[in-house]
């Protein structure tokens, strides 16, 4: 510590950390009965854990401002700053239960030291982290939306599994093995120190709800490999402007979630009154409920992304065009335009929870290449994601729904897109608008149908809502392979529908 103090005075560091210990301050207020959180939670009609979570997410933004103003100029303190502030937020939300988030970090550090960064370490990390998470779910999970230590732990599980793979990939590179371009970007040739690992685990902007990012990104960020001061527009750094934009969008989506949630809710769908409405109304209601329910996640991701950009870890130089500004979307978890304009379920997958989907694609799906079957690899990947979310039946039903919908969509599109009438309809302005409206209704309605089990979790609840919808999704998507697909192919041949040629 004396080496560090030669660079920065005790008083400067002490004052900086005092203004950053927000969580400890709020915890002390709670211990002495002076915390405003219970009062505010009652006014906002929410729970104390949920309000603490929101406060903690919002804290990431000022922590980024303080980092750039006071800490960034001292390289020795950068990682330590995130260790302390992240642990402070974790302590405020979960108390002594933060030990559960520390144990896996210590585990991967010691297994990497003992067995080396290879295949065995990946297996140990995968099994240990998933087992720890599942046991945590069994101990804490209920029928409601729980905010316990398992919430940040599910994010941490993916980060540590990815870290073990990245360490293994780094060893492969050192041996001259060929890796994919994405694997090369995240591969680690050196093992992180314990303190670096703890900073990576408790990074305050992402610890609670994500997004996940690689240790390579964290290391590059600490090493100042991102051009914070080189891109300035109208006297402001570009990352500051982009962070503020995301912050405003996050607040707007949070407000929309509050309004939408007050109009569309699960309790009504579980009531007898819901059955008294028309079948079309029930489907539209369920779809709109799901759309606004997803705003809960979107608002959190936008707010955390704003913090990530403001801190500076979101740098992404996707386009090397001279003079073009950087994107700063390296920690983006939602693509708003694609999500809001979705006309097929693949658009939802491409735009929603992007970093988790990237993890699933890079570290699960592509690693299952040895199975020799894409559908089987996709099925195993979706099962992993369901298990990662919890043990309740609703998670598995939702991801099964995703599988059968995507399977049908891809096959249907591959068949119909080869016909001339398909292209003629999309080229006609009037027909294009009609098709867009139909597809938009389709995606909203069946996103609702698909998401219901995920939200209500238990079979008694999702079965009740599915009964009110007459299990419409299963009727539409399940028989595709053995009934609808052969019928579609036969119909195209029977009516002599013209196919487009390759030249066309």
UniProtKB/TrEMBL annotation:
Any one GO CC term of the record: endoplasmic reticulum
One BP term from GO: lipid modification
Transmembrane region(s): 21-44, 50-68, 80-100, 120-140, 197-215, 251-270, 433-451, 463-484
EC number: 2.3.1.23, 2.3.1.n6
Functional pathway: Lipid metabolism; phospholipid metabolism; Phospholipid metabolism
One Pfam family named in its UniProt record: MBOAT
Origin superkingdom: Eukaryota
Compartment annotation: Endoplasmic reticulum; Membrane
Membrane-topology descriptor: Multi-pass membrane protein
Protein name as it appears in the record: Lysophospholipid acyltransferase 5
GO molecular function per UniProt: 1-acylglycerophosphocholine O-acyltransferase activity; lysophospholipid acyltransferase activity
Family: Belongs to the membrane-bound acyltransferase family.
Keywords: Acyltransferase, Endoplasmic reticulum, Lipid biosynthesis, Lipid metabolism, Membrane, Phospholipid biosynthesis, Phospholipid metabolism, Transferase, Transmembrane, Transmembrane helix
Enzyme class: transferase
């Amino acid at each position: 510590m004396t080496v560090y103090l030669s660079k920065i005075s005790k008083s400067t560091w002490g004052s900086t950390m005092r203004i950053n210990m927000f969580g400890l301050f709020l915890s002390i207020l709670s211990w002495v009965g002076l915390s405003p959180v219970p009062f505010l939670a009652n006014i906002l009609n929410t729970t104390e854990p949920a309000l603490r979570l929101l406060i903690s997410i919002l804290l990431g933004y000022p922590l980024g401002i303080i980092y750039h103003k006071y800490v960034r100029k001292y390289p020795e303190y950068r990682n330590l700053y995130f260790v302390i502030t992240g642990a402070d937020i974790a302590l405020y939300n979960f108390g002594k239960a933060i030990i559960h988030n520390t144990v896996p970090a210590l585990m991967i550090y010691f297994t990497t030291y003992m067995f080396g960064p290879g295949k065995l370490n990946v297996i140990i990390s995968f099994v240990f982290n998933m087992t720890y998470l599942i046991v945590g779910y069994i101990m804490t999970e209920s029928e409601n939306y729980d905010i316990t230590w398992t919430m940040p732990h599910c994010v941490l599980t993916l980060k540590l599994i990815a870290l073990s793979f990245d360490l293994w990939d780094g060893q492969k590179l050192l041996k001259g093995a060929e890796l994919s371009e994405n694997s090369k970007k995240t591969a680690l040739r050196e093992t992180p120190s314990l303190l670096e690992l703890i900073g990576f685990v408790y990074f305050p902007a992402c610890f609670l709800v994500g997004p996940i990012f690689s240790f390579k990104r964290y290391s590059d960020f600490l090493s100042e490999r991102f051009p914070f001061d080189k891109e300035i527009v109208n006297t402001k750094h570009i990352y500051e402007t982009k962070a503020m934009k995301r912050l405003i969008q996050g607040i707007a989506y949070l407000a929309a979630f509050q309004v939408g949630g007050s109009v569309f809710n699960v309790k009504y769908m579980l009531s007898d009154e819901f059955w008294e409405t028309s079948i079309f109304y029930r489907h539209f209601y369920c779809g709109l409920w799901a759309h606004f329910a997803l705003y809960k996640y979107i608002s959190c991701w936008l707010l955390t992304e704003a913090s990530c950009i403001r801190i500076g870890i979101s740098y992404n130089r996707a386009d090397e065009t001279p003079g073009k500004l950087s994107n700063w979307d390296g920690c983006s978890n939602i693509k708003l335009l694609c999500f809001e304009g979705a006309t097929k379920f693949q658009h939802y997958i491409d735009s929603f929870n992007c970093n988790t989907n990237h993890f699933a694609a890079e570290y699960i799906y592509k690693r299952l290449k040895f199975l020799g079957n894409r559908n089987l690899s996709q099925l195993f990947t979706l099962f992993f994601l369901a298990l990662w979310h919890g043990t309740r039946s609703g998670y598995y039903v939702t991801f099964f729904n995703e599988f059968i919908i995507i399977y049908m969509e891809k096959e249907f599109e591959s068949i119909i897109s080869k016909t001339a009438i398909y292209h003629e309809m999309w080229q006609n302005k009037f027909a294009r608008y009609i098709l867009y409206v139909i597809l938009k209704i389709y995606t909203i309605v069946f996103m609702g149908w698909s998401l219901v089990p995920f939200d209500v979790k238990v079979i008694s609840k999702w079965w009740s809502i599915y009964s009110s919808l007459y299990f419409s999704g299963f009727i539409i998507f399940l028989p595709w392979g053995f009934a609808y697909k052969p019928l579609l192919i036969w119909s195209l041949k029977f009516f002599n529908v013209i196919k487009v040629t390759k030249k066309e």
